[in-house]
Design a protein that fits this description.
41% helix, mainly alpha, Multidrug-efflux Transporter Regulator, Chain: A, Domain 2, two-stranded antiparallel ribbon, globular
């Protein structure tokens, strides 16, 4: 089953989001449980908008000092 937002962008499942972040699924699950990443709950299912994954990446960037 594919879940689609109104504007046509697909919501990512845990496997897809973990792959996008380069994390194990269990690590992403922990991040979700600590509410450190925006996610969508559809009953028991957890889904992610691609822009929320990108926002999480941007929030965790470490700047290099000159």
């Amino acid at each position: 089953m594919q879940i689609v937002k109104d504007d046509g962008n697909k919501l990512l499942n845990m496997d897809e989001a973990a792959a996008m972040l380069g994390l194990k699924k269990s690590t992403l699950y922990g991040i979700v449980m600590r509410k450190q990443i925006v996610h969508v709950k559809l009953g028991k299912l957890t889904r992610f908008r691609p822009e929320d994954i990108q926002a999480y990446i941007n929030k965790n960037l470490v700047e290099v000092r000159p």
